[in-house]
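Board notes (copied after class):
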Amino acid sequence: MVYQHFTVAPGLSVAENLVLARGELPWRLDWATEFERLNAFMARMPFRLDIQRAVSSLAAGEKQKLEILKQLYLDRRFVILDEPTSVLTPQEATEVLGLMRDLAHANELTVLMITHKFSEVTAFADDVSVLRRGRLVGSTCVSDTSPEELSAWMMGQSSSKASAVERKPVDDNLPSRLEIEHLDVPNDRGTLAVRRLSLSVRPGEIVGIAGISGNGQRELTEALLGQRKSVAGDIRINGQHYGATRIEMQREKVYSLPEEPLRNACIAGMTVAENLALRDYDRGELCRHGWRVDRRAIRARARQLIARFQVRPDDPERPIGTLSGGNVQRVVLARELTDDVAVMVVSNPVFGLDFASVELIHQRMQEARNRGAAILLLSEDLDELIELSDRILVIHDGQINFETTAATAERHELGRHMAGAGAGAMDLHS
């Protein structure tokens, strides 16, 4: 099975993870033979990973590729894919699912794919079944159904578009709220993952960044959120230098929706209520006399946020690590959108989530945009970027190499630049 959450050993290399997946191993490995076998295997695959890289250095999309490669390497006859393409480019997704479909039609493999993407179902599946709240609500041949019918089954209504948020136009006369100029950010090995990157985001604007996973998105996000040091360049909010300290984030009202929220935005062993209070447990109504945490107030506010953001189960005392991925992200969304938002940094916010959670998160992001938030959205899902963004930039090898409006964006053109066409930095600082 290819799980929604990664099952790789971060302290080992790609090669060691693939070999370890075989299970029983001899007490001594002939690595020359193993590398020869692994290189021959990689040559047949639709995408590549450096087999000597440490898994800890891989971005989320690269880890997802490794999970799929493990199953193919083991010659599985039955494979379950849980949201397998959430952080793959359209080209990679087509290659991966096309390979799976071809193997299935050649009677070499049986595939059960769990996905919320209609395009994947209609393009690659033979039959489809829909679950809602743990119950089977419909099953049919793909050729006998439509996206509208599938949406009705999934949501319990004919269309999810009824609650669509009206988009306010971006005021081009407003000065940029978030500005990044000639930013250099190193990766874990010390080499530059982000190189002389410049961009700007205005109030009431969503700027999307498209790119193949592993091209500097993680390092850029971490630099903006104070989790990684930049070595050159400048980040400014409202014209003032921004160092991403906790005090600056509170003062400038900078919030985030990160990928892998259990790792990047939550403490798994703490309760939902405690995680909801991580930002402001020492301020306002949650803190008595300026020093004493008011746990009763924390629980009371948690119940309100749980109801507003439809977190299930609705228990503020439940450890957040026991929630589903969609509900963990709902908790993070509730925490990050509690106050007025000036700047929001969003990275793959709906990775592997259920359809209803995706709709809720997208709706809340658009509402924040319409209230004047400047939102930087990093995503490997072009559908998400085109739907939500006002402008789309493409990042390749740590540099912005293309810009377009979402209204005129062409998938083929975005894909070409994601693969490196027209490589070279664009100066988008304005």
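Comment from the instructor: Residues 158-162 have pLDDT under 50 and may be disordered. The chain is about 35% helix and 20% strand.
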